[in-house]
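A.,

Following up on our hallway conversation. Structure tokens first:
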């Protein structure tokens, strides 16, 4: 399920994102202090999405978590569309905005990629928010500014940096999506990864006995590089598919950074 951000009222959403005339200013007025706040509502909504997924998110569910009715929330947040924008931007505040200035851009980008992967897996619902229309919030911009600053360390032209920022972001997001789905597969289907693969791989040999002849390159690769079978004694608690996806992430990241190094050499930058 893909969700598009920025569907609420543009002015109200942007004012809330950037806290222009934020409702909390009412706290300074005489009289009883408000029970709720925009930040409290956003935190509750994030908790709902983290625990139950995007499909469970509603103003009613958030209100119940706060012990309030859905109607009580509308004084602070116009609706679910605006709330989604606020949630998405709020969690991006967790991402580091500074990395050690060692002059080693490759190490910085490696740390950035791993931090971003871990962040997206803490909040897998962010992967359902389409990148076609960004939220345009302060924390989302801070995360992008951090990546651009790290890429500027390569000395490459701004136009190249722009494309590399997109490439790295899409790569990490794609890997995070695979890991998140690997975590969800067993619970969603009621069948562990190992059982699923064993049953179907056995049937594949039966229904396609000429598989190796039909797909020679793929078969040769599998024979030469097949991952080890799942280790039942492993103590990391990681599903087999997730472990393989993480290995793919590390291998792919190395190749991407190798490519950036090659671009730096071609450009003749220091």
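Then the amino acids I'd put at each of the 270 positions:
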């Amino acid at each position: 399920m893909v969700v598009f951000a920025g569907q609420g009222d543009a002015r109200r959403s942007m004012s809330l994102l950037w806290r222009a005339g934020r409702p909390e200013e009412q706290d300074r007025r005489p009289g009883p202090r408000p029970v709720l706040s925009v930040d409290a509502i956003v935190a509750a909504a994030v908790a709902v999405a983290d625990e139950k997924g995007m499909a469970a998110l509603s103003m009613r569910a958030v209100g119940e978590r706060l012990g309030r009715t859905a109607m009580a929330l509308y004084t602070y947040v116009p609706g679910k569309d605006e709330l989604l924008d606020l949630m998405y931007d709020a969690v991006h505040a967790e991402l580091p905005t500074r990395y050690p200035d060692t002059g080693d851009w490759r190490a910085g980008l490696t740390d950035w990629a791993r931090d971003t992967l871990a962040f997206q897996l803490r909040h897998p619902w962010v992967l359902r928010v389409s990148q076609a229309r960004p939220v345009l919030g302060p924390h989302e911009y801070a995360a992008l500014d951090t990546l651009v600053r790290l890429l500027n360390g390569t000395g490459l032209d701004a136009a190249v940096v722009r494309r590399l920022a997109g490439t790295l972001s899409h790569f990490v997001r794609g890997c995070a999506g695979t890991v998140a789905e690997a975590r969800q597969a067993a619970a969603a289907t009621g069948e562990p990864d190992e059982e699923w693969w064993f049953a179907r791989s056995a049937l594949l040999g039966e229904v396609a006995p000429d598989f190796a002849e039909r797909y020679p390159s793929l078969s040769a690769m599998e024979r030469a590089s097949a991952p080890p079978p799942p280790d039942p004694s492993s103590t990391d608690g990681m599903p087999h598919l997730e472990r393989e996806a993480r290995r793919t992430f590390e291998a792919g990241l190395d190749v991407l950074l190798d490519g950036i190094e090659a671009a730096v050499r071609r450009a003749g930058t220091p």
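Residues 101-267 form a domain with the Tetracycline Repressor; domain 2 fold (CATH 1.10.357.10). Curious whether your intuition agrees with the design.

B.
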